Amino acid sequence: MVRVGLTRERLIRAGAELADEVGFDKVTVSALARQFDVKVASLYSHLRNSQELKTGIALLALEELADRGAAALAGRAGKDALAAFANVYRDYAREHPGRYAAAQLPLDPETAAASAGVRHAQMTRAILRGYDLTEPDQTHAVRLLGSVFHGYVSLEMQGGFSHSAPESQESWSRILDSLDATLRNWPAP
Amino acid sequence: MVRVGLTRERLIRAGAELADEVGFDKVTVSALARQFDVKVASLYSHLRNSQELKTGIALLALEELADRGAAALAGRAGKDALAAFANVYRDYAREHPGRYAAAQLPLDPETAAASAGVRHAQMTRAILRGYDLTEPDQTHAVRLLGSVFHGYVSLEMQGGFSHSAPESQESWSRILDSLDATLRNWPAP
DNA sequence: TGGATTTGCCTAAAGATATTAGGCAACTGC
DNA sequence: GCAGTTGCCTAATATCTTTAGGCAAATCCA
């Protein structure tokens, strides 16, 4: 009986890779056990249940996304920052579709509050420092940006914009242009 | 052995109701069989497999959403139409969270092309007739609106905007204002 | 170094879901 | 009222989740 060296950490990391390969919904405890050539029950020493695996992958994805976002924002401001940050989301979703899907997993409030989701909100606010918005408009704008980024990326991932002209990349650029214009010229109530 | 009168139609309708009650992801063939007090295998005369059930609920939701959208657009134009249409999405998601979740189910291309999703795109284009956009900007704008509506509603459904000021309703109104302004003043490339 | 303890993976088992095959009873049509 | 069709059933298999309890390998420590 050779010990493989299972770890909560390794399992979640392998789960994330599996998600990118076969889709987040196909990530199961059984599939993961197969990857490690180990019996299913063995994973339950490291994971409370399958929910913990899924949540773990979601939290990992949120961290990675936040790290990339922070790197993209460094040294940038204004529209430059806006576009760089937006591209982080889009690129991450394309590179890691399974992880991105995992990041959409609804988390219970405590888990969410302790997650990197908080950093996402802070970074979005940081971008808005390049524009002239004060509360509560800044919050409205945070919500707008979050909606557009998430909405566009998820529609694009589902193939919503493929096979029809113009290219999705073109729309993406023009939408970022329009968001920049909107933020520079945020309408009064 | 009393016959309950199962039908593909009835099953999908019951599945949609079940989705709104317990969540789309909890809608299973087994759960549905329980609802009708019938053995699981009996459903397989009416449904090819569980995928068909889920797809059926998705298509039903898309139809209902398109019908509501059409009703909302009748007799309206410009910002009025924009807001009415947007509210259809948001209200539908709140009234029928399970169905709304179902409407996000990725469909294979042929199914999607035959679905009410096509009407959604047409209606969005109809709204844009109230603004001065020509191709390809109109397509970019269609994609922007789709992203914002879907993005906002799904973030709101996941509780993203609750428990933090200002109220989500306020952000929603201001975002619709900003979209209207953006469309009236769409920036050149 | 060797024994005690902890820890990791295993076997076994039960419960839930999805799906298929084949059977009998209840409707339908005439 | 009979023949044929249809609808729901029993039975069986496969997969996934989860728990309980066991043995062996790693680790600790004298």
From TrEMBL, chains A, B:
Molecular function via GO: DNA-binding transcription factor activity; transcription cis-regulatory region binding
Keywords, ordered alphabetically: DNA-binding, Transcription, Transcription regulation
Occurrences of domain HTH tetR-type (ranges): 5-65
Keyword check for Cytoplasm: no
UniProt KW Transcription keyword: yes
Pfam families: TetR_C_33 (PF13305), TetR_N (PF00440)
PANTHER family: HTH-TYPE TRANSCRIPTIONAL REGULATOR RUTR (PTHR30055), TRANSCRIPTIONAL REGULATORY PROTEIN (PTHR30055:SF151)
Protein name: TetR/AcrR family transcriptional regulator
Organism, as annotated: Streptomyces sp. NBC_00119
Source taxonomy: Bacteria, Bacillati, Actinomycetota, Actinomycetes, Kitasatosporales
